[in-house]
Design goal:
Low-confidence stretches: 85-91
Strand order of the largest sheet: 2-3-1-4-9-5
Distance between the termini: 35 Å
Largest sheet: 6 strands, mixed
Structural class: alpha/beta
Helix content: 25-40%
Number of strands: 9
Order of helices and strands: HHEHEEHEHEEEHEHEH
């Protein structure tokens, strides 16, 4: 079903006439993903992460594709030795190290490289992502030779399981009521979503009576995130490695992203 909805969304042109249909599809997709995650958690298949005790003042998780230089970075920034080699999947488990900075102790985790489809269980993706969810900061290590492509793919994998990078949590409350229909109050002028869209999305969640309060101009994706209530908002630092392998022009483009 998830694939069918994603295919339909890909086929549907984005315009004023289709925005309500796309909004409903996004709500259906979010519901199915949440149901799938809950089912896997109950059966023990959700990926519990690696057994690494959280120590220090903050935890930083290095996430990236295989062979982008995560292990080398751990070796340089900490006194820990993580095997680095010129082949993929050198790191097969989570290797912790510590950075001492201004009397603070920061735990830095070298995680196995993830592949496309990690959020669906490919490789050890779910375990890696589970550690990312428990971190205070994600350090996304990227190969400069791939430009912005790897960044987009990794961000999509993390968003699939409810991780929102460098985003503020929407100030939206949805309180179900016994009667009265859907009442929407917003403290600012709305430009991204009207009452019809809000009511359609709530109907998909079987909420026909509710009081919605929005303290910002939010879109349908943010509204769905607020309804789901299980999103994780984490700061992300992007680190580009192998910049000596690209041209000055490409390096300038990366610096402006």
């Amino acid at each position: 079903k998830i694939k069918e909805i994603k295919d339909e969304m890909a086929r549907t042109q984005k315009n004023k006439a289709t925005e309500y249909h796309l909004g409903l599809l996004k709500a259906k997709l979010a519901k199915l993903r949440s149901q799938l995650t809950e089912a896997e958690t109950k059966t023990g298949g959700g990926g519990e992460g690696f057994e690494v005790e959280k120590l220090g003042h903050a935890r930083i998780a290095m996430i990236g594709f295989p062979s982008v230089g995560k292990s080398t970075m751990l070796n340089v920034l900490t006194e820990t030795q993580s095997e680095a080699a010129a082949y993929e999947f050198t790191t097969l488990t989570c290797i912790p190290g510590f950075i001492n900075y201004n009397e603070s102790k920061l735990q830095l985790l070298d995680l196995p490289g993830i592949i496309e489809g990690a959020a669906s269980g490919k490789g050890r993706g779910r375990q890696v992502i589970a550690v990312g969810k428990s971190s205070d900061l994600i350090m996304m290590v990227l190969d400069a030779q791939h430009g912005d492509a790897h960044k987009a793919k990794l961000t999509a994998e993390l968003e699939t399981v409810g991780i929102r990078l460098n985003q503020e949590k929407p100030l939206i409350t949805v309180k179900p009521t016994m009667k009265g229909g859907v009442i929407v109050n917003c403290t600012v002028k709305r430009t991204k979503m009207d009452d019809k869209m809000i009511k359609n999305v709530l109907a998909e969640y079987k909420m026909h009576n509710a009081h919605v309060v929005m303290r910002g101009d939010y879109d349908v994706d943010q509204f769905i995130d607020a309804i789901e209530g299980n999103r994780k908002y984490i700061k992300c630092l992007y680190v580009y490695n192998k910049i000596d392998m690209i041209s000055i022009e490409d390096l300038d483009t990366l610096a402006r992203l």
